[in-house]
Design brief:
Radius of gyration: 41 Å
Shape: rod-shaped
Number of helices: 10
Order of helices and strands: HHHHHHHEHEEHEEHEE
Largest sheet: 5 strands, mixed
Low-confidence stretches: none
Distance between the termini: 40 Å
Length: 335
Protein backbone atom coordinates (compact mmCIF):
# COMPACT_ATOMS: atom_id res chain seq x y z
CA UNK A 1 0.00 0.00 0.00
CA UNK A 2 1.21 3.51 -0.85
CA UNK A 3 0.35 4.91 2.60
CA UNK A 4 2.42 2.32 4.47
CA UNK A 5 5.41 2.67 2.11
CA UNK A 6 5.31 6.46 2.16
CA UNK A 7 5.07 6.75 5.95
CA UNK A 8 7.83 4.19 6.41
CA UNK A 9 10.06 6.23 4.08
CA UNK A 10 9.31 9.50 5.90
CA UNK A 11 9.99 7.88 9.27
CA UNK A 12 13.24 6.37 8.02
CA UNK A 13 14.48 9.70 6.65
CA UNK A 14 13.46 11.81 9.65
CA UNK A 15 16.43 10.71 11.77
CA UNK A 16 19.14 11.39 9.15
CA UNK A 17 17.53 14.75 8.30
CA UNK A 18 17.55 15.71 11.98
CA UNK A 19 21.13 14.53 12.48
CA UNK A 20 22.44 16.35 9.40
CA UNK A 21 20.47 19.47 10.29
CA UNK A 22 21.60 19.83 13.90
CA UNK A 23 25.21 19.04 12.92
CA UNK A 24 25.22 21.82 10.30
CA UNK A 25 23.46 24.26 12.64
CA UNK A 26 25.97 23.49 15.40
CA UNK A 27 28.89 24.03 13.03
CA UNK A 28 27.69 27.55 12.27
CA UNK A 29 26.97 28.08 15.99
CA UNK A 30 30.49 27.06 16.93
CA UNK A 31 31.93 29.43 14.33
CA UNK A 32 29.81 32.28 15.69
CA UNK A 33 30.94 31.68 19.28
CA UNK A 34 34.52 30.78 18.34
CA UNK A 35 35.28 29.50 21.82
CA UNK A 36 36.40 26.27 23.42
CA UNK A 37 32.86 25.74 24.74
CA UNK A 38 31.33 26.20 21.31
CA UNK A 39 33.67 23.74 19.60
CA UNK A 40 33.34 21.27 22.44
CA UNK A 41 29.55 21.36 22.13
CA UNK A 42 29.82 20.94 18.36
CA UNK A 43 31.89 17.79 18.93
CA UNK A 44 29.25 16.45 21.35
CA UNK A 45 26.43 17.22 18.88
CA UNK A 46 28.30 15.59 15.98
CA UNK A 47 28.91 12.47 18.08
CA UNK A 48 25.26 12.31 19.15
CA UNK A 49 24.05 12.30 15.53
CA UNK A 50 25.20 8.66 15.29
CA UNK A 51 21.92 7.81 17.04
CA UNK A 52 19.94 9.74 14.40
CA UNK A 53 21.61 7.87 11.56
CA UNK A 54 22.19 4.41 13.04
CA UNK A 55 20.23 3.93 16.29
CA UNK A 56 16.57 4.92 15.75
CA UNK A 57 15.45 3.20 18.96
CA UNK A 58 17.41 5.64 21.13
CA UNK A 59 17.26 8.63 18.78
CA UNK A 60 14.45 10.37 20.67
CA UNK A 61 16.07 10.42 24.15
CA UNK A 62 19.43 11.32 22.60
CA UNK A 63 17.84 14.24 20.73
CA UNK A 64 16.08 15.31 23.94
CA UNK A 65 19.31 15.30 25.95
CA UNK A 66 21.17 17.09 23.15
CA UNK A 67 18.81 20.06 23.28
CA UNK A 68 18.87 20.11 27.09
CA UNK A 69 22.69 20.16 27.14
CA UNK A 70 22.82 23.03 24.64
CA UNK A 71 20.16 24.98 26.53
CA UNK A 72 21.79 24.55 29.96
CA UNK A 73 25.37 25.25 28.87
CA UNK A 74 24.69 28.06 26.40
CA UNK A 75 21.56 29.68 27.83
CA UNK A 76 20.99 33.11 26.30
CA UNK A 77 24.54 33.32 24.89
CA UNK A 78 23.57 31.44 21.75
CA UNK A 79 19.78 31.57 21.65
CA UNK A 80 19.56 31.21 17.85
CA UNK A 81 21.74 28.11 17.92
CA UNK A 82 19.63 26.52 20.66
CA UNK A 83 16.31 27.64 19.16
CA UNK A 84 17.11 26.31 15.69
CA UNK A 85 18.26 22.95 17.04
CA UNK A 86 15.10 22.84 19.18
CA UNK A 87 12.69 23.50 16.30
CA UNK A 88 14.53 21.09 14.00
CA UNK A 89 14.21 18.41 16.66
CA UNK A 90 10.52 19.07 17.30
CA UNK A 91 9.67 19.10 13.56
CA UNK A 92 11.42 15.82 12.77
CA UNK A 93 9.89 14.15 15.83
CA UNK A 94 6.45 14.66 14.24
CA UNK A 95 7.57 12.64 11.18
CA UNK A 96 9.04 9.75 13.13
CA UNK A 97 6.87 8.97 16.14
CA UNK A 98 3.13 9.02 17.01
CA UNK A 99 1.44 11.75 19.01
CA UNK A 100 1.37 9.70 22.20
CA UNK A 101 5.18 9.85 22.15
CA UNK A 102 5.86 13.29 20.69
CA UNK A 103 3.36 15.30 22.73
CA UNK A 104 4.83 14.42 26.19
CA UNK A 105 8.39 14.72 24.87
CA UNK A 106 7.62 18.11 23.29
CA UNK A 107 5.96 19.44 26.46
CA UNK A 108 8.93 18.30 28.58
CA UNK A 109 11.48 19.84 26.21
CA UNK A 110 9.59 23.14 26.03
CA UNK A 111 9.43 23.24 29.82
CA UNK A 112 13.21 22.91 29.97
CA UNK A 113 13.57 25.68 27.41
CA UNK A 114 11.29 28.04 29.34
CA UNK A 115 13.31 27.46 32.50
CA UNK A 116 16.70 27.93 30.83
CA UNK A 117 16.06 30.58 28.16
CA UNK A 118 12.66 32.08 28.95
CA UNK A 119 9.17 31.83 27.35
CA UNK A 120 10.17 33.52 24.11
CA UNK A 121 10.72 30.16 22.41
CA UNK A 122 7.16 28.91 22.93
CA UNK A 123 5.35 30.56 20.03
CA UNK A 124 7.80 29.58 17.31
CA UNK A 125 8.44 26.08 18.68
CA UNK A 126 4.75 25.23 19.12
CA UNK A 127 3.75 26.72 15.76
CA UNK A 128 6.42 24.82 13.82
CA UNK A 129 5.63 21.57 15.64
CA UNK A 130 1.92 21.90 14.83
CA UNK A 131 2.61 22.73 11.16
CA UNK A 132 4.95 19.73 10.87
CA UNK A 133 2.28 17.43 12.31
CA UNK A 134 -0.37 18.89 9.96
CA UNK A 135 1.88 18.36 6.95
CA UNK A 136 2.46 14.76 8.07
CA UNK A 137 -1.27 14.12 8.47
CA UNK A 138 -2.06 15.69 5.07
CA UNK A 139 0.55 13.47 3.45
CA UNK A 140 -0.91 10.47 5.21
CA UNK A 141 -4.47 11.33 4.19
CA UNK A 142 -3.48 11.92 0.56
CA UNK A 143 -1.66 8.61 0.31
CA UNK A 144 -4.63 6.86 1.92
CA UNK A 145 -6.93 8.41 -0.68
CA UNK A 146 -4.64 7.20 -3.47
CA UNK A 147 -4.75 3.70 -1.95
CA UNK A 148 -8.54 3.83 -1.86
CA UNK A 149 -8.71 4.93 -5.50
CA UNK A 150 -6.32 2.16 -6.53
CA UNK A 151 -8.34 -0.43 -4.63
CA UNK A 152 -11.55 0.81 -6.24
CA UNK A 153 -9.99 0.61 -9.71
CA UNK A 154 -8.70 -2.89 -8.99
CA UNK A 155 -12.13 -3.93 -7.72
CA UNK A 156 -13.78 -2.56 -10.86
CA UNK A 157 -11.26 -4.42 -13.03
CA UNK A 158 -11.95 -7.65 -11.16
CA UNK A 159 -15.69 -7.14 -11.52
CA UNK A 160 -15.31 -6.49 -15.27
CA UNK A 161 -13.21 -9.64 -15.65
CA UNK A 162 -15.80 -11.68 -13.75
CA UNK A 163 -18.61 -10.24 -15.89
CA UNK A 164 -16.66 -11.00 -19.08
CA UNK A 165 -16.02 -14.57 -17.98
CA UNK A 166 -19.64 -14.99 -16.95
CA UNK A 167 -20.78 -13.75 -20.36
CA UNK A 168 -18.45 -16.21 -22.08
CA UNK A 169 -19.79 -19.05 -19.95
CA UNK A 170 -23.36 -18.04 -20.71
CA UNK A 171 -22.65 -18.05 -24.45
CA UNK A 172 -20.99 -21.43 -24.11
CA UNK A 173 -23.97 -22.74 -22.19
CA UNK A 174 -26.40 -21.49 -24.84
CA UNK A 175 -24.31 -23.18 -27.52
CA UNK A 176 -24.25 -26.37 -25.46
CA UNK A 177 -28.02 -26.28 -25.06
CA UNK A 178 -28.36 -25.99 -28.82
CA UNK A 179 -26.11 -29.02 -29.28
CA UNK A 180 -27.99 -31.13 -26.74
CA UNK A 181 -31.41 -30.37 -25.30
CA UNK A 182 -32.69 -28.21 -28.16
CA UNK A 183 -31.71 -30.85 -30.72
CA UNK A 184 -33.37 -33.60 -28.69
CA UNK A 185 -36.56 -31.57 -28.31
CA UNK A 186 -36.59 -30.97 -32.05
CA UNK A 187 -36.18 -34.68 -32.69
CA UNK A 188 -39.07 -35.47 -30.36
CA UNK A 189 -41.28 -32.75 -31.87
CA UNK A 190 -40.84 -34.24 -35.36
CA UNK A 191 -41.90 -37.68 -34.22
CA UNK A 192 -38.49 -39.27 -33.83
CA UNK A 193 -38.14 -42.86 -32.77
CA UNK A 194 -38.71 -43.03 -28.98
CA UNK A 195 -35.68 -45.28 -28.50
CA UNK A 196 -33.41 -42.87 -30.39
CA UNK A 197 -34.86 -39.88 -28.52
CA UNK A 198 -34.20 -41.62 -25.17
CA UNK A 199 -30.64 -42.52 -26.19
CA UNK A 200 -30.00 -38.97 -27.35
CA UNK A 201 -31.41 -37.61 -24.07
CA UNK A 202 -29.05 -39.83 -22.08
CA UNK A 203 -26.10 -38.54 -24.10
CA UNK A 204 -27.31 -35.00 -23.49
CA UNK A 205 -27.28 -35.55 -19.73
CA UNK A 206 -23.70 -36.80 -19.90
CA UNK A 207 -22.58 -33.79 -21.95
CA UNK A 208 -24.40 -31.29 -19.72
CA UNK A 209 -22.70 -32.78 -16.67
CA UNK A 210 -19.22 -32.32 -18.14
CA UNK A 211 -16.84 -29.82 -16.55
CA UNK A 212 -13.57 -28.40 -17.73
CA UNK A 213 -10.57 -30.07 -16.06
CA UNK A 214 -6.88 -29.13 -16.04
CA UNK A 215 -4.24 -31.05 -17.96
CA UNK A 216 -3.85 -32.10 -21.59
CA UNK A 217 -5.93 -34.39 -23.78
CA UNK A 218 -5.13 -36.34 -26.94
CA UNK A 219 -7.37 -34.49 -29.38
CA UNK A 220 -7.08 -37.22 -32.03
CA UNK A 221 -8.43 -39.89 -29.68
CA UNK A 222 -11.19 -37.62 -28.35
CA UNK A 223 -12.46 -36.69 -31.82
CA UNK A 224 -12.21 -40.29 -33.02
CA UNK A 225 -14.60 -41.22 -30.19
CA UNK A 226 -16.98 -38.45 -31.32
CA UNK A 227 -16.86 -39.82 -34.86
CA UNK A 228 -17.70 -43.35 -33.67
CA UNK A 229 -20.80 -42.07 -31.85
CA UNK A 230 -21.98 -40.02 -34.81
CA UNK A 231 -25.05 -40.88 -36.82
CA UNK A 232 -23.08 -40.77 -40.08
CA UNK A 233 -20.16 -42.82 -41.32
CA UNK A 234 -16.99 -40.85 -40.66
CA UNK A 235 -13.65 -41.54 -42.26
CA UNK A 236 -11.05 -40.45 -39.70
CA UNK A 237 -7.44 -39.44 -40.19
CA UNK A 238 -6.16 -38.53 -36.75
CA UNK A 239 -2.68 -38.15 -35.30
CA UNK A 240 -1.75 -37.75 -31.66
CA UNK A 241 -2.36 -34.07 -30.85
CA UNK A 242 -2.05 -33.11 -27.15
CA UNK A 243 -4.02 -29.95 -26.30
CA UNK A 244 -5.30 -28.39 -23.07
CA UNK A 245 -8.47 -30.03 -21.74
CA UNK A 246 -10.54 -26.86 -22.16
CA UNK A 247 -9.56 -26.53 -25.81
CA UNK A 248 -10.22 -30.23 -26.41
CA UNK A 249 -13.70 -29.86 -24.94
CA UNK A 250 -14.50 -26.91 -27.21
CA UNK A 251 -13.28 -28.83 -30.29
CA UNK A 252 -15.19 -31.97 -29.28
CA UNK A 253 -18.41 -30.01 -28.98
CA UNK A 254 -17.79 -28.11 -32.21
CA UNK A 255 -17.07 -31.33 -34.19
CA UNK A 256 -20.11 -33.04 -32.65
CA UNK A 257 -22.27 -30.15 -33.84
CA UNK A 258 -20.74 -30.27 -37.33
CA UNK A 259 -21.37 -34.02 -37.66
CA UNK A 260 -24.95 -33.52 -36.43
CA UNK A 261 -25.42 -30.89 -39.14
CA UNK A 262 -24.12 -33.35 -41.74
CA UNK A 263 -26.60 -35.97 -40.54
CA UNK A 264 -29.57 -33.58 -40.61
CA UNK A 265 -28.92 -31.22 -43.49
CA UNK A 266 -26.22 -32.43 -45.88
CA UNK A 267 -28.20 -35.20 -47.55
CA UNK A 268 -25.32 -37.65 -47.26
CA UNK A 269 -24.39 -40.37 -44.81
CA UNK A 270 -20.63 -39.86 -45.03
CA UNK A 271 -18.14 -37.31 -43.75
CA UNK A 272 -14.39 -36.92 -43.43
CA UNK A 273 -12.57 -35.90 -40.25
CA UNK A 274 -8.89 -34.93 -40.34
CA UNK A 275 -7.08 -34.15 -37.08
CA UNK A 276 -3.55 -32.70 -37.24
CA UNK A 277 -1.56 -30.38 -34.93
CA UNK A 278 -3.42 -27.09 -34.69
CA UNK A 279 -6.00 -27.97 -37.38
CA UNK A 280 -9.22 -30.02 -37.50
CA UNK A 281 -11.19 -30.34 -40.75
CA UNK A 282 -14.71 -31.73 -41.09
CA UNK A 283 -15.89 -32.16 -44.70
CA UNK A 284 -18.77 -33.76 -46.58
CA UNK A 285 -19.90 -34.05 -50.17
CA UNK A 286 -23.54 -33.24 -49.50
CA UNK A 287 -25.89 -30.57 -50.76
CA UNK A 288 -23.85 -27.65 -49.52
CA UNK A 289 -25.28 -24.22 -48.71
CA UNK A 290 -24.54 -20.52 -48.87
CA UNK A 291 -23.11 -19.48 -45.44
CA UNK A 292 -24.23 -15.86 -45.92
CA UNK A 293 -27.86 -17.00 -46.26
CA UNK A 294 -28.02 -18.72 -42.88
CA UNK A 295 -30.57 -16.86 -40.65
CA UNK A 296 -29.13 -15.07 -37.64
CA UNK A 297 -31.38 -16.99 -35.22
CA UNK A 298 -29.77 -20.28 -36.25
CA UNK A 299 -27.03 -20.81 -33.63
CA UNK A 300 -25.61 -24.04 -35.04
CA UNK A 301 -22.56 -22.54 -36.76
CA UNK A 302 -22.31 -19.11 -35.13
CA UNK A 303 -22.70 -20.17 -31.51
CA UNK A 304 -21.77 -23.83 -31.35
CA UNK A 305 -18.81 -23.69 -33.75
CA UNK A 306 -17.53 -20.20 -34.61
CA UNK A 307 -18.24 -18.66 -31.20
CA UNK A 308 -16.96 -21.70 -29.35
CA UNK A 309 -13.62 -21.63 -31.20
CA UNK A 310 -13.27 -17.88 -30.64
CA UNK A 311 -13.76 -18.43 -26.90
CA UNK A 312 -10.60 -20.57 -26.74
CA UNK A 313 -8.55 -18.31 -29.02
CA UNK A 314 -9.17 -20.25 -32.22
CA UNK A 315 -11.01 -19.78 -35.50
CA UNK A 316 -13.59 -21.61 -37.57
CA UNK A 317 -13.76 -21.11 -41.35
CA UNK A 318 -16.74 -22.48 -43.29
CA UNK A 319 -16.30 -23.21 -47.00
CA UNK A 320 -19.50 -24.27 -48.70
CA UNK A 321 -21.66 -23.65 -51.75
CA UNK A 322 -24.82 -25.26 -53.08
CA UNK A 323 -23.99 -28.48 -54.94
CA UNK A 324 -20.35 -28.91 -53.87
CA UNK A 325 -20.51 -29.94 -50.21
CA UNK A 326 -19.16 -28.31 -47.09
CA UNK A 327 -15.75 -28.08 -45.45
CA UNK A 328 -15.18 -26.52 -42.02
CA UNK A 329 -11.63 -25.81 -40.86
CA UNK A 330 -11.09 -25.41 -37.12
CA UNK A 331 -7.79 -23.95 -35.97
CA UNK A 332 -6.31 -23.34 -32.59
CA UNK A 333 -2.98 -21.46 -33.12
CA UNK A 334 -1.65 -22.21 -29.65
CA UNK A 335 -2.03 -25.95 -30.23
Amino acid sequence: MLEARLLATVSRLAGPVRGAGVALISLFGAFSLNSALGWGLFAVVALSTVADFRLPRVALPVAFLRVVVLSVLLGADADQWVLTVLTTTLITWQWQWPLKVTVPATVALLAVQVVTTGPGVLVRAILESVLARLAYELLRRSSRRVDALRERAASQSRAAAVALDQGRREREYLALLHDTAASTFLMAAHGGDPGEVAAQARRDLVVLAERDVPGTVDLGAALSAVARDSGVEVRVEASVVPVPAGVALALVRAVRELLTNVERHAGTGRADLVVSPGVVVVADEGHGFEPADVPEHRRGLTGSVVGRMAAVGGTAVVDSAPGRGTSVRLEWPRG
